[in-house]
Amino acid sequence: MFTFEAAFHRYRRKHGMVKALEDYADLRDAPMQHPLDGTSSDLAILWPSEPTVLDLNEHFLELSNLRNDELPRWAGLVVVMCFIPLCLLLSGGTLWFLWDVAFVGDPQIPFPPNSIKELGVLLGMLLLAVLGVPMASLLWREFQSYVFTARCARYRFNRTTGKVYVLRPGRWGGNAVLDWSRVQAHVHWVPPAESEQSQEYASSLNDRAEQLRREVNWSRQSGSEVDGSLAIAGLLDLVTGFGVPAYDLSDEAREKRRKKDYGGCLLLYWPPLDAADPQRRGEDLIWVGPRNSGERLWCYIQTFMQKGMDAVQAPAMPSEWLHKGRNPDHVLNWLAECLCYWPVFPVGWNSEVGQTRRENGIGPEQPLTWPAKVPEAV
Q: Alpha-carbon distance 253 to 23, whole Å?
């Protein structure tokens, strides 16, 4: 699922890329770590708990963005398939009823109303009709990362090519091939806390138009697809006042986010190729792995990329179902995952370096189809 990715891009569309990186991604004056060279002897190889490894061989280590603190996917399925249609049906049905009252005539509810009670009924139904569509839009915005999208992101760290191959939906950055040598790691990242003070979302039409223009320009520069719901969501925001949550960005909150005992996850960031480039070409970021494993997971990835699979402990591989993103423990969860697609690496990338991996069918190919000299975990 793409909870952090969706929240980041919502914040970016409202405030711009620079502020999103500073506030949501917490990259302003953050203690970033860079890849170490292969001669270092200080790399830890302790594999973090609850790994999300999808594949491993002598060329690459494939990870995901699966996390252990999110709502189950079936919850998103229930919202998208039940509550959103219910909101739309209530809105449409109420509008049809009001149309019938106003233009056709109804003996039980005359129009114009003759009493305060009749007026209250009509105003209440009008409010229900007006709020139905915005509420459906709000629910879709919050749960669109659960169904009808990729089951998960796939990050292939290839030590042979020195690249990181990224598969993710276009609305949250799209596919990318990134240089390992340029990566920076924020190993204690946690999402920002929402502000205690309620802030009204009241932006002018010019601000909303600027937001839409910024999104279109960014999509053209990065080559990723535009979020098709942006224009509709923007219009509904102007009408209803729904907006991006206000986060607590105080210095105290920022320091709390970066505490080493706070249980952060791993955020990898690639700065622009040219700091003076206004289009910020080459800039990207991804969230890797579960919570509470940021620093250990970063050390493990570094060890693999610099010294190979012989230098790291064998990770615990997921089951056949979890490897493909499916979880048969819950029927609704399995159904929700069947409504998502499994992303596949383009053949032209050659990210598997000639060792073709099976992508079709239920369950994975054997992650290690040839002998691997991986020491067992102690």
A: 11
